[in-house]
Protein 1
Amino acid sequence: NVNKGSMNGAGNLMDFLDEPFPDVSTYEDFHTIDWLREKSRDTDRHRKITSKSKESLWELIKSLLDAWSGWVVMLLIGLLSGTLAGVIDLAVDWMTDLKEGVCLSAFWYSHEQCCWTSNETTFDDRDKCPQWQKWAELMTGHAEVELPAFTGSGAYVLNYFLYILWALLFSFLAVSLVRVFAPYACGSGIPEIKTILSGFIIRGYLGKWTLLIKTVTLVLAVSSGLSLGKEGPLVHVACCCGNLFCSLFSKYSKNEGKRREVLSAAAAAGVSVAFGAPIGGVLFSLEEVSYYFPLKTLWRSFFAALVAAFTLRSINPFGNSRLVLFYVEYHTPWYMAELVPFILLGVFGGLWGTLFIRANIAWCRRRKTTQLGKYPVLEVIAVTGITALLAYPNPYTRRSTSELISELFNDCGALESSQLCDYVNNPNMSRPVDDIPDRPAGPGVYNALWQLTLALIFKIVITIFTFGMKIPSGLFIPSMAVGAIAGRIVGIAVEQMAYHHHDWIIFKNWCRPGADCVTPGLYAMVGAAACLGGVTRMTVSLVVIMFELTGGLEYIVPLMAAAVTSKWVADAFGKEGIYESHILLNGYPYLDVRDEFTHRTLATDVMRPRRNDPPLAVLTQDSTTVEDVETLIKDTDYNGFPVVVSRESERLIGFVQRRDLTLAIKNARQKQDGVVSSSVVYFTEDAPQLPASNPQPLKLRRILNLSPFTVTDHTPMETVVDIFRKLGLRQCLVTRSGRLLGIITKKDVLRHMAQMMNQDPESIMFN
Amino acid sequence: NVNKGSMNGAGNLMDFLDEPFPDVSTYEDFHTIDWLREKSRDTDRHRKITSKSKESLWELIKSLLDAWSGWVVMLLIGLLSGTLAGVIDLAVDWMTDLKEGVCLSAFWYSHEQCCWTSNETTFDDRDKCPQWQKWAELMTGHAEVELPAFTGSGAYVLNYFLYILWALLFSFLAVSLVRVFAPYACGSGIPEIKTILSGFIIRGYLGKWTLLIKTVTLVLAVSSGLSLGKEGPLVHVACCCGNLFCSLFSKYSKNEGKRREVLSAAAAAGVSVAFGAPIGGVLFSLEEVSYYFPLKTLWRSFFAALVAAFTLRSINPFGNSRLVLFYVEYHTPWYMAELVPFILLGVFGGLWGTLFIRANIAWCRRRKTTQLGKYPVLEVIAVTGITALLAYPNPYTRRSTSELISELFNDCGALESSQLCDYVNNPNMSRPVDDIPDRPAGPGVYNALWQLTLALIFKIVITIFTFGMKIPSGLFIPSMAVGAIAGRIVGIAVEQMAYHHHDWIIFKNWCRPGADCVTPGLYAMVGAAACLGGVTRMTVSLVVIMFELTGGLEYIVPLMAAAVTSKWVADAFGKEGIYESHILLNGYPYLDVRDEFTHRTLATDVMRPRRNDPPLAVLTQDSTTVEDVETLIKDTDYNGFPVVVSRESERLIGFVQRRDLTLAIKNARQKQDGVVSSSVVYFTEDAPQLPASNPQPLKLRRILNLSPFTVTDHTPMETVVDIFRKLGLRQCLVTRSGRLLGIITKKDVLRHMAQMMNQDPESIMFN
């Protein structure tokens, strides 16, 4: 008798309603899902399959396929997102170079591929191969003479002009495609994905068109030379892949809760290919984007992330069998005293994070509220023009940001031909690569320092205006670039200080003359971690991603010191990272798991109806007519109504969803004879005793949720918030000694939290 | 007015009760904590400190110290557990060698240290240095002649005898110390730590004595040569450190919820030093042992794990600047076709896991229920004797298990002098180390294969009887040893097959003659991962730990394939891993987050009172006398009582803890005049109107929890289980239309789950 009575459970009623109206989806757009209900529906489905599987061999096979479908989806996500990442990398590489010139032997070769295949003789000449021609050279036959910036020859000016033209073309294409075909393809996508994973519905955000257009426009946007990265959008692309493959299996396509498990794993795969860091990707998904992350998802995310990483590796877009351009291995240890500059870089990262978030949010709010927002194409064109105009003269901003980061991270080996490695007495190749002692900086390094400083200011300013435009734009790469530039500058300064002042007390112990004690590349990496941490407030995942970018465990401590400092400094100015700020800006109903709610309010302070409000809209179990219900549905826009024994006793018996009620009455009016406007709707188990003259009553107990979630009016709000978070509720009823007093919805909770934090409660827009 | 009225919240009442009886702790031994209450108490404490911090500078400093105490505790845990791990490593090294001989130059040197300092001339002679003397040599002056096993000379027999004697001495000391000083120091500790972290109280389990005795006896137990490892117990040791440092800060010592956050991080530090894998440690804590793991804990765990790893590295117990003996770097890639043997190893691991768990649980149950359990010392002595007797003749079981694993993992380089690397045509050192082609096996390899097979059978059998004895014993190392032996055997077989059959279709594509295509060491590592996975059912953390033991990302796929297969095979025979099995065996109230509850039962089927039971013990809000309450407390052993408006209406108004009730009445009887047995206890806001002749009433509203957790009787049990898990409840009240029907405790839930899985519900012993 343990199994009796569950026909009335919340799970089953869906079957009845889903089948007659297959085209009506369970949740409306821009609404919040009910996690408990989704879970219970999935358990029901699972039970049905398990019990059927004993009936025949075919059913058994079907149940096995169902059990395996999760792994199949993960495999497909890994394969597709790895492939897309590889294609994007290759295309960006080619199109970035196309702005400067073309390969004569095969126009689809990028600069490096072109020169690599044409001559492999000497390493230094790699960049000057006859097959690769700049546009001016190709058109006029005259090679450009490399002159100081802003004084260029005719060929220089022509190249400059064509560079800007290509950039404008790319960005115009990008913004137009986004506007015409998939408006959701713009931005980084991570704020929205966080919101979706927390249980919000945004139809089409992860659709096929978004996937296609985002992939294409991402290539265009990155190639146009704007200060943006492909890492954040890759997470969006991977989640679109996840959503696409969900539709193959009804287990995932019909259950919003299960679908989100897949999306969490897809986000991990996205970060995995963006940074070549599968473990970091899983931790990113866990720490940063996911909301409900069952342990099963952890394992599957890891699988998807690995498949994606290996798919990308087999495509090998950079020709070095690494997954990212800026993979480095350092060989010299760091010293305790270096923690001081590392922590200073952390402080810089925190300040940058605060500045960026405040300025960017202010600019985005201006875009939302003023005329500016009405001309997105013009805005993109203008920013691209300014970016290209200012970027071209400086060699550090002209190239792609990934290449810049890669050069800044790299230690100066004997083979390095970069300006940054122009040290006096550059030893020849007779010495091993990883043991070059500290040396005085040559003129190239001083020149590079100036250019880097200009690049730093330029990047800081332009990134603020770029992030949030109507094109795909990630901010991992620009943030990392800012940090890497600052870090490299600090690194060179410390190195030169150590070289010139061997006798200072702080250098005496670890930096003998002729020793290789300071690695400026490591400073660049630490700076990049600090700036990224300041903007996103990632912690463990940041350190693990950076760890996977470097050789060994050795360098975790500097990275961690910088990440911790940067987070503390940035948190001191404001708790929200850039993604949470954008969520707030857009008014999404996101209940952050990390915000501690510490106020002393009670459920009674938050519930509605407030004092002086009209009483709560309720149904009674056996005295409401069909007409009453229809009026109530018409007059209100609530998502559901509590059902009470009677208006006098106010004793709660259940909760009925607006959608179920509408469908049930529509259905009954069409198919059930005798149901008219004056029919009594009853939710009790047995029909009420009515005179024979009355019209036939309508029994609706099957759509009644008999286990609505309740709290008492004295429950502290911190507990209520905890319950909403952990159980993923949409609404919760408030009672006192069994009497129904009111209702608290997720929106009420969010508004109350905003109010307590002195924010505008009306900014929470959706329910 | 939002802040009004919260004085009645559940959080505040504690302050009132805690202060007069400081020696009474909040929870009794072997009881479950209430996570929501702990959380709410901590928020209260935090609020108090925040509001006080505005009063004076001193209070501000105190509040800052409080905010930083979490990081301080983590730092201390990392330092102490890293140090202890280093000391344990050094001591085990020395004492393991002490069984065979002694260093003449300094008796506290282990064999390797002794020979390393005495001569560094040739690498081959390292094991044969004059300073290190075996016991027989020292006592008789005659060196042992190495003869085939079981035919030994006099010196051999003497060494054999002394080896057994030392082993017996060590294990006798270990078991005696455990029995006399700290009975909780036995076993691996992980099942109990899982239970404690899920919210159970076991006083003294993480105490100072346990820490001290476990550290000492762990060294003795490992040195005695028994088939056990130090990895699991290190987690226990680290958790003891965590508990120790909790007592320094009232924030952690007085709040069982906060304390568990620290313990989760300590577990991560423990695994970090056990395997030299900080990221793996954090994931182990997250996946395997922790229950509530807020994101803040993730970051702190990572910090503690890193500090512990760096402390251990600075101690450098193995002299190779690695954290574990069996760190390896492979240089040859693996090939797709090798996945077949890897998956076979996974199947072996799964079967081993099933066999081990079933056999070990059967044996432990026998120990619990028969006479066997009464002679733990004798049991340990007997098993040690048998182990030493059988282990000595075989060189692979004579040495410590870590060394064995290390040798099996290692690839045969040119410098390797091991029997396992005795290949024909061993090339000289002229070739680089990492490019030795596949070669035919020499007689040494065949000899080693036989000895390894014997060692495998021996380890499989003896580990079953060893794990669970009354000494500290981990099973990571024995499991890994079983897998490594099996893996190495398979690896050598594949290697020889590939060498002798280059023309077979499966080898043709990737294994040309003279190429180095099969790495037997990698097979050993894959086998170790598979066996460890089969026993513990770890997934992500297992792969990440193994990843941190090897050089690169390259080898994750084989490890993952084996881990997945092993988990699936083992899960097919039974869902529980060894730790869950031991939890079940001991009847701890552990609500596994991973078990899916899929039955169709409702809350009404589980709640008490059952049909035919006496009615629920309740208090009324204004009609119970002090005497009634005292009788109720005396007659029942419930942890708390629901309070209703009246017995007729049965409308619930709150829940009162047994302990609070007892204390409040005791307090009132002592201090409050006029409170006698016939005084009315009232829980309403205003005193009831009583005739003047009646004794003074006792107002107890302040100890009433006005927000007890309720569900309706129609709530599906899957939802109830979910709520218990996610919110960490102790009990939940069941109502129907506002009327109180019954109560469900955590024990009821566990019993119901056991019943549904056809297990004995009476095995759940604690509440």
Protein 2
Amino acid sequence: MAGCGVRWQYILGAALSGALLLTAGILLGHYAIYKEPQTPEWLHSLSRDLDPALLEDFMNQVEAARIGQNLKDLSSKPHMATTKGDEELVQLILKAWRDPQTGLDSAMEGQYEVFLSFPDPEKPNSVAVVMENGSQAFISQETEKNLTADQADRDVVKPYAAYAPPGNPKGKLVYANQGKMSDYEYLVQQGIDLNGTIAITRYGGAGRADKAINGAKFGVVGVVVYTDPGDINDGKASATETYPYSWYLPPSGVERGSYNSHFGDLLTPYYPAKGFTYRIPEDQITGIPPIPTQPIGFEDAKTLICNLAGNPVAEAAWQGALGCVYHLGPGFRQDGLFPNSSEVQVNVHNYRRINTSSNVMGLIRGSVEPDRYVLYGNHRDSWVHGAIDPSSGTAVMLEISRVLGKMVKEGKLRAGCVCVFYFLWWGVKHGNSRGRSVSGQKDASPTYCLPPPFSLGSLGAGSDYASFIHYLGITSMDIAYTYDRSKTSARIYPAYHTAFDTFHYAETFIDPGFTSHQTVARTAGNVLIRLADALILPLNVSDYGETLQQMYSVAREAFQADLTHHNISLDPLWAAINRFQAAAAGLNQRIANLREEANPSPLDVRMVNDQLMLLERAFLNPRAFPEKYYYSHVIMASRSSSLATFPGLADAYDNAKEDGLWGEVHKQLTIVIQVIENAASILEPVAE
Amino acid sequence: MAGCGVRWQYILGAALSGALLLTAGILLGHYAIYKEPQTPEWLHSLSRDLDPALLEDFMNQVEAARIGQNLKDLSSKPHMATTKGDEELVQLILKAWRDPQTGLDSAMEGQYEVFLSFPDPEKPNSVAVVMENGSQAFISQETEKNLTADQADRDVVKPYAAYAPPGNPKGKLVYANQGKMSDYEYLVQQGIDLNGTIAITRYGGAGRADKAINGAKFGVVGVVVYTDPGDINDGKASATETYPYSWYLPPSGVERGSYNSHFGDLLTPYYPAKGFTYRIPEDQITGIPPIPTQPIGFEDAKTLICNLAGNPVAEAAWQGALGCVYHLGPGFRQDGLFPNSSEVQVNVHNYRRINTSSNVMGLIRGSVEPDRYVLYGNHRDSWVHGAIDPSSGTAVMLEISRVLGKMVKEGKLRAGCVCVFYFLWWGVKHGNSRGRSVSGQKDASPTYCLPPPFSLGSLGAGSDYASFIHYLGITSMDIAYTYDRSKTSARIYPAYHTAFDTFHYAETFIDPGFTSHQTVARTAGNVLIRLADALILPLNVSDYGETLQQMYSVAREAFQADLTHHNISLDPLWAAINRFQAAAAGLNQRIANLREEANPSPLDVRMVNDQLMLLERAFLNPRAFPEKYYYSHVIMASRSSSLATFPGLADAYDNAKEDGLWGEVHKQLTIVIQVIENAASILEPVAE
């Protein structure tokens, strides 16, 4: 589905992550112009609102079968970034957008030079058990088993941890749960000396790179990562219970991924990865594993973990579904598969290089305000075939652009209309998400549904919109059709980033008939057309006020006692939120009044649309989080704290509890107050 | 005159520096509306351009005598920031802007809590010569001599170096020229041990605070600063050649000032100095003297410098007009006024505190696009009476606001018009500065004239516009009527920041009859009305392209050989500048086409105005200069290099020549290229 979380593309930043950005202007009206003597041509087009018939027409033309065919074309071959398969998709997309009948007004490429990491095709990475005499007692599988022929494609990249450094460290194995700081601390508390050990960790709980970054702080020399069937397969672990017999991950499946905490090209933080751009030395890169790291399948992980020594056993929360009791190590148990003196060796032969790649952009020009843009995007590159991640989103986008392109070419949409959205903020929920064709359960795919109403949350750093919302403050939205979490505990769809994320998998287990895809296309197109064509932008700023108030309540509940003790008052924050809410209500009222005017002045409409459009920018402070690349959005930045409140404040509070630096808490509180005051002033009417 | 360079206000930041910000919307039309059946009311007001008769009317109504009276009222008493005299001016200005006949639409105060430095009124600061036996052989004058009664006002603050720390260090005296790094280095090269010395330095060449910051690096323990008559008086140094007999500085005159390298409140960098704002600990403040520092008059400086020991004598460039040959020290010569063993002691009793103060803001509401603002501002606080700095600018502003306010009240200006400009970029030169009433020599004041044509340069960090242009990227302009530099070598007008900058001084020697003030008011009002009322903003973006090209030429000439040697190419910079120039020419052409349309669409006009208005923002990069508070404007930031080229590039180049860090040069070049590419994209037409 559109917007599946992927990490690989973050490192590509502007290069690939927005592979399918469509840009076009906001169209405020699109009908044939009624000529009246004495009045200028543009008069009537300026105050015309969205035409419901246009929406209806769009919805009717979206075809599930075409989306299915798009998906088949897009995922027929592996298309990892900058590989041949990926370059072929550049051409596929350009061809679609340049089609004489259904293409867009224009389509173009924008080239970048991006820093990537690859495994050495000649020397496979591995995780081995090495006995005292130096001989190998076990070696991990090189790649997934061939179950549906797709896995045998010679372009399937063997599993690796992108950006992990090469090396072959060897040591006693320990089980470190999810590789969080607290996990390693727990091992130390158990009396385990982590120096020189190899840690095996399961996916989840911490970022991929963090498992190694954290471990290295404790003396760990190599990290192994696997997907526990308890986290992704509802405990199913046998070959016959998993794909191709169900949507569950087979025992040999390995999640690849970008082991990188930041987004954007690693060598050119804050700047476009162009030929002329200064590149930092590789040793200044942060947020990637400092020690060799390798992912394996749970079949191999079972061999390692189920033979670990150590007493007591790992606590309940650390246990998984490998079919044995997990011990912590260090090393293997006496009565197991391997001699107790055996060690584990992580063999990594990754290399890094700068490759050329392109963004592909297509455009439908706006007819009234062609300098105002609505963007719709998705990344293009996958880890293997990438049927769900990312091609499901691309397949939907191509169908949306086909229908809109056709409508433009046929003259229904006058002089072009905005094509595609992607970036819109959560506030859309009241304004825009109740398009009547978008609703209902979907029974064909038991685990997948679109819960009515939409489930809405804040945007994390989890996908292609990250640089738009977090760095640029562009109002953003992520629409995904996902599975019913009451029916499965899977952390993500099980084939994620493996050689089993194929067209066959998608059409068999995810969306037979592609009707969910069709629903997403209709929803997305609906929002897109409304954003582009509505006289007044369909964004409800009061929702933001509610969110701020919720965040405030959490902060007050958790922090107030300590803050008061350190003479820091939350009252100015509360005052700022009240001001924001009053301003939002006032703007809504002015919008309502404007809607009742028969002939509103286009500049009055423009003024209100600017307030709606620029609100998100007011929450940016590029100096708020100097340690976090790109994160500038004070309300939505990433946070380490588990509390759903202002991230800078929450993290500063946690730190102050440790180090006593309450000044930093006051500073972060100041930053929050200032952006909310700024945001309120954006929404307020001009001074009289 | 408006915009005289002052440093004090920088520390007040948003609190006082923009004391007289007038804000109002861009008025695109202002006539009575012609009603036509079938067309909305707003139709005709949207495409009406500036009315020349309005300008004419404004020009005719500006009265020199009223400006003179304003100046008398404003400078009758000392009004240092947050003192009683300053608070009285808040009321004076509010009263003027709330006048029923000539006031503005509204006027208001905005309170801040600002960090200030004051001398102890009970314990005067001094610079003394102390003999070996501990007795005092000399002590500097406490304040200026009373020459015209103004100096006897009990509210005249005694000379001090604001923000210099208290203390009474003592040591051998050395003469350190202007206190630049190179000056101290030169002294060391002469074999002088600076450890434990007191340095006497003259104003000029380096920032006030830098004289002490630099000296402390060499072991200097106290700094004395004076104004050399060679720098400010064309060498005139006697009582009968100086004020009240001429405009020159009397021997007892002392330039006070803010010894602070940054702008904005020192405790709240990047945040408004409000009650809720986090304040950094005082020991984290940078950019102020780390050692006691005190300014004195040149009469006292002569006693110290003309008795210095040391051979050889100071080199020619270091000599001044005190009437003796300057030696370097250390200490006093054998045959002079003081025993050779005497030392100089700098006695400073300054204290720092947080005071409350207000911005005063007045507003004329725009009638068509009331959310677009033109700002006109000046600071309010002075060091003493401050007739020229800052009151001349305020006197002019009050006359402009009186005339515009009156025109609004009388209904000539419909529904209000923008009041006051201040912030506009240099590009105004072609578009706007040739108002026909603004020209000519002014013979009444032999040293002051407005050279025709305007002398135009880039905006430094030297005045109240600093935070607007450097931090916010708001197109800014500084209009000043200044003296003819072919007739005097004065660094600045001689009474600057002394107790002699009085109304008497201004009316006698600066602008008898206040006709120069009148000319400034007409010029400023002219620009202001054009900015507010023109259908298309009168800004010529091609001027920016010329400046970029000049900067490029300087960079190529000076840096290319070394850059090539380090594999850094200037070609992408040249390509970016070419793109910018083409984009600017294209925009100019589109503007010309738009002007020829009988009824341009208001949204087409809005689009072009946005491009003109937002251009300056494209040059901001808040991460370009992390060490320089607030400086974000990549083209106009301060620089240490003497080369008139891209500041970050020039400084990185100079550093690389010392430390070999050519990567930083490449990074700064990248930053320049990126902002120019961004700026070009702002100007380019939307994609087709």
